[in-house]
Amino acid sequence: MPPAPEPPHDPRSAAGSGPEITYGECRQCGTLIAGLDGRYSCGVCGWVNPHSEGHRPLPRAEDDRHRIAGRDTNRLG
Ligand SMILES: [Zn+2]
Question: How far does the centroid of ligand 1 lie from the alpha carbon of residue 45, in Å?
């Protein structure tokens, strides 16, 4: 497995930057399957859902930085 392009120093950014494991049912055979960010691949029947059904585009460092800046900025000033 190749290392991530950007070293996750901040534990918060590390937790927010990677794909999240999600769970759902296979729409073909109904098996409970795990996926990443809403993208599933059934190991029983081979069903996969379209990538466009993912919860978000593949994460990038820039996107993650934007998200953190928008959501987690302290509004003290
Ligand atoms: Zn299936």
Answer: 4
